[in-house]
Amino acid sequence: MPIREPEHWQLEPHQGRQFFRRFSFGDLADLSVVETRQHRSQQVPALVDGAVNPALVDPERQLPEREQLAWLTEGLRRSEKAWHLVGNQTVFARVLSTSGPEGAVFNTDQWDGYQADQAAVLAAMADATADPVMLTGDIHSSWANDLPTDVAAYTADPGATSVGVEYVCPSVTSNGFKESLGGAATAQAVTAAFQRRNPWVRYLDGIGHGFVVLDVTPERVQADVHFIASGGDTGLAVDPRLDPDAVTRYETSFVSVRGSRRISGPVDELGPRSDELRSASRR
Question: What's the rounded Cα separation, in Å, for the pair 107 and 97?
């Protein structure tokens, strides 16, 4: 992702370059932007000899460096705004594999590969006054997730506690589940299986390419998903990523109401926004 070089705003000594930073939007929201590639521990496999790898819960392994983890968890606990948004690089929600032993995770490149750090952030979310909202990319698909601290309890009772929500945006052009798995039908079958295994994943689409419009008010955070579609009338199945006449079309919307810390929806599209933008201050 394009990112501003830190020389102009890194005011305190730090291990390497400090890319994480925070913005404040009046009394509406804080936005913490994390960076989890520079100092993370080496990735490890999900399974060892057919069993869940115990290294996944090792507190000595880190995704963000210790200074950044403390900055993030303290910021979540101290925020007095309506919302605390977190710009985040890899999926935060627990995503259990559809095969393998109980507790096996899908991808250890995500926060699931660093579960002590994941648990620390979930604990900070539970303590927070502001409603936490993770804003994530990287996996080339569209998601809307509740964030339970206890996935077993949530599986048994979908009304169990969720301490925040996560919206994941699709890619514009990079291959997604459809391309990686060889077709739309296979992608739909796989994503449906993921949702059955992970009921806190309230929405998952691995076919569409596009973007998400996020709208934040004191009462709710809404995500409107838009996909690109072929614009020509050729009668052929054209990959919209290759179509110079491609257009965007609205797909669906999900919302988190203030105080609920859960995903609701689908809901109606907000449509054109008429309010004035608020300015952001950096700190």
Answer: 8
- The one-letter amino acid at 14: H
pLDDT of residue 99: 94
The amino acid present at 66, given as its one-letter code, is: R
Instruction: For residue 178, give both structure tokens.
Output: 């459809």
Helix 66-78, helix 115-127: angle, nearest 10: 20
Q: Residue 81: left if φ>0, alpha if ψ -120 to 50, beta else—which one?
A: beta
Q: What is the pTM of this model?
A: 0.92
For residues 85 and 165, what is the distance between their CA atoms, to the nearest angstrom?
A: 10
Residue ranges and CATH numbers for the domains of the chain are: 19-282 (3.60.21.70)
Query: pLDDT band at 282, cuts 50/70/90?
Result: very low
pLDDT tens, position by position, 173-214? 999 999 999 999 999 999 999 999 999 999 999 999 999 999
| Residues 6+ positions from 178 with CB-CB distance below 8 Å | 184, 186, 187, 206, 207
Contact 223, 210 (CB under 8 A): no
Q: Provide, rounded to the nearest whole percent, the portion of the chain with pLDDT above 90.
A: 82
Contact 221, 256 (CB under 8 A): yes
Provide the mean pLDDT of the chain: 92
Question: If you search the block for the tokens 């020389």, which residue do you land on?
Answer: 7
Residue 270: CB atoms within 10 A of its CB come to 16
Q: Check whether the bond before 266 is cis (ω within 30° of 0).
A: yes
Reduced to 3 states, what is the DSSP secondary structure of residue 122?
helix
| Edge-to-edge strand list for the sheet holding 220-229 | 210-216, 220-229, 247-257
